Amino acid sequence: MIDESTVAAGALPATGVPAEQVLAELRQLRGADRPTHGGRLFAYVYDPAVTGLDDLTATAHAASAHVNGLDPTAFPSLLAMENALVAAAGRVLGAGPGSAAPDVVGSVTSGGTESLILAVKTARDAHPEIAAPRIVVPSTAHAAFAKAAHYLRVALDVVPVSPETLRPDPVAMAAAIRPETVLVACSAPSYAHGVVDPVTEIAASAAAAGVRCHVDACFGGWTLPYLRRLGEPVPPFDFSVPGVTSISVDLHKYAYAPKGVSVLLHRDAALRAAQYFAYADWPGYTMINPVLASTRSGGPIAAAYATLRHLGDDGYLRLAAATRDAVAGLADAVRAVDGLRLLAEPESTVVCFTATDGGPDLFVLVDELTARGWHTQPQLSYAGLPVSVHLTVTAAVAPRVGEFGPDLAAAVAAARSAGPVRLPAELASVLGALTPEALTPEFVAGLAGGLGLSGEPGSGAGPLPERMALINTLLDTAPPALRERLLVEFVSLLQRPAWSAG
Ligand SMILES: *Cc1c(COP(=O)(O)O)cnc(C)c1O
After folding, report:
1. In this structure, which topology does domain 312-418 adopt according to CATH?
2. Label partner for 47 (CA 20 to 30 A): which of 140, 309, 398, 449?
3. 63-307: what CATH class?
4. Are the C-beta atoms of 250 and 115 separated by less than 8 Å?
5. Model pTM score
């Protein structure tokens, strides 16, 4: 079993440990995690609750785990599976023979962030003559665009969204395009609120300006088409929309594949060309990489391939129907509770709610839901948008919906009687005077200790206390730049080997 000495020594014992013991250690470690199955986790994990799928994907993963995507000619199995995944994603997203986008090509990446970094890189590198490239995104665009801009030294022009519709004004998006703009992006749907941006108008103005338009369908690209087939009013967002030049879709989200697979599609091969990196100017093998990684495991690709083949088109339609019904049920549960309101009417697979005036403290409510076995995601207030609670709804939630309403009502009652969290006065004044630049690792270590946050590997306790309301309140008080610095220092405290503690 894992004990202090195991943790301090690290993963490499002087003599090897028997397989059963290693697996027992893994099970023990996994015991501290949030439950990945059971339909009560509304973030991080996408669960279709299909019997046998985990076993199938584990076997498929294992069969290809040692295969290297570095060289598609050495391992044609991976080339075939990647091309099959790209074709499947293309067909779901309005491409393929007989469509408006018959020449779509794509790449399999490790996740949505990598897909977005590559979309930005490709747009940037297609214009070497632009010395200081820029991209235009709505304020609800995924943070991965900011990461891409930061990594690639591309300037980020952020267009605010309307507090009512949570969408950007297409006219404002068009007005933000400058001569240096290499890419305009929008979401279908946004992660935070699950709303679809006005893709048709945004793509049209980008095309008129001669600029690429990326649709970030990482989250919902695999569900929106099925919801449309089920009769939901899904606006156009895919390659059927003129001006859309690339689309990303995460297979490890609503295609229900195990983690590590996203697809980046381009309308044609010429648009993809600048994505490749090739290097022959060294004595080793000539490197030709379509994506960020060079050596790549075949495991996630084979697991995704197995998932798509096993679930099939009818499977995804059935899962989308179950998810749609679950979303409707959860939204009704929110509407039924006094003190809460939906921040956006659900139009995809997200339920996002906030408190009405005089409603409960949402950070306390999130803790009360956790205490009742429901893991939701609090979203801090931002640029005029209130604190909200985000639920990513997957098919596994469907059988649980009936239990959610009563628990939500009870959690609201408990949060009301507990009252809002108040920051200790001295802490509030220290924070008020704190600037991101002045924040030191020592300050954060002291703060973390004072808040009962354990940075001690092997301490047995999780890094976070059961009740997060105080910490969320503290973060919510801080402006974004200070939130970033506080969390970087805190996570940096967690991410270090046990022998460096103390
Ligand atoms: C999840 C998500 C991403 C980032 O994907 P990762 O797989 O976490 O890197 C990007 N955009 C949207 C809309 C997402 O929901």
Report:
1. Aspartate Aminotransferase, domain 1 (3.90.1150)
2. 140
3. alpha beta
4. yes
5. 0.96
